[in-house]
Design goal:
14% strand, Rossmann fold, binds NADPH dihydro-nicotinamide-adenine-dinucleotide phosphate, 7 strands
Length: 251
């Protein structure tokens, strides 16, 4: 956890960074923060109006001109991921950062009542889609001198919890995939892969999961950005296959 990290103002200058789920919550904060530190950010998500708002905010703040890439992980095919890679290759020629942040909670419900279609949906958005997107983007990541791939985990991806069903299982799979890919890429010093658990953060997803909780007791997405910046930028060079936390555990 690098909550006290003080990034250089130009930490991500000249870097091309893709953020999934960039329209809301933690992804929105990461996109704004990466742009503020000099990155050209590709805003990927399913709700175009939200992505456009983030785009406008980055422009208004004087950040490098971002790009919008509409994509819904539900229903996205291999062809969509390869078309995306082709577009990004033409436009940028490489990718220096990939923040897998988009996520779906599904339902908090006893397993005997879990709907199998919803289970598949959660697995598709949280792990299967991101895996095939990563495969399609590997050639672009190879073109970078220092590419950081970050998968978003959760405390329930490290220790299971009753009723969290597919969400918890998808985050365990995320941790497993990070281990596998980091190990495969260990001899390629230019691509590192890590998992990052944001910890309890004031977003819509957290409100849905814990409706009785006072959101003002939680850290905001902006509060946890130091670790997101550290792991995306050159100060974490050499770190791969690690499981990180963006905030200290709550008392
Ligand atoms: P939000 O629900 O606020 O934001 C999730 C983002 O993912 C939204 O931008 C959403 O798009 C996007 N998204 C959801 N489904 C899809 C899809 N099918 N295709 C493309 N984009 C999609 O969640 P958070 O910001 O809280 O969560 C971000 C990440 O952090 C997730 O991976 C989550 O699991 C993880 N996390 C969050 C914690 C917390 O306390 N908040 C704790 C632990 C982990 P749209 O805006 O269109 O809905």
């Amino acid at each position: 956890c690098k909550i006290d990290y003080q990034p250089a103002p130009n930490l991500l200058a000249n870097r091309i960074v893709l953020v999934t789920g960039a329209g809301d919550g933690i992804g929105r904060a990461a996109a704004l923060s990466y742009a503020q530190h000099g990155a050209t950010v590709i805003l990927l998500g399913r709700t175009i109006a939200k992505l456009e708002r983030v785009y406008d905010e980055i422009e208004a703040a004087g950040g490098p001109q971002p790009a919008i890439f509409p994509l819904n992980f539900e229903g996205a095919t291999l062809k969509d991921f390869h078309d995306m890679a082709e577009t990004l290759d033409k436009e940028f020629g490489r990718l220096d950062g990939l923040l897998h942040n988009a996520g779906l909670l599904g339902r908090i419900t006893p397993f005997d009542q879990y709907n199998p279609e919803l289970w598949q949906q959660v697995m598709q958005v949280n792990i299967n889609g991101p895996i095939w997107m990563t495969q399609a983007l590997l050639p672009l990541l190879q073109q970078s001198e220092d590419a950081s791939v970050i998968f978003t985990s959760s405390s329930v991806g490290r220790k299971g919890r009753a009723y969290w069903g597919a969400y918890s299982v998808s985050k365990f799979a995320t941790e497993g995939f990070v281990d596998v890919l980091a190990d495969e890429l260990a001899n390629q010093s230019n691509i590192r892969v890590n998992s990052l658990n944001p910890g309890a953060t004031r977003t819509q997803m957290r409100r849905t999961a814990f409706p009785g909780e006072d959101p003002f007791t939680l850290r905001t997405p902006e509060d946890i950005m130091p670790t997101y910046l550290w792991l995306m930028g050159p100060d974490s060079a050499g770190i791969s296959g690690d499981k990180l936390d963006a905030q200290p555990p709550r008392a």
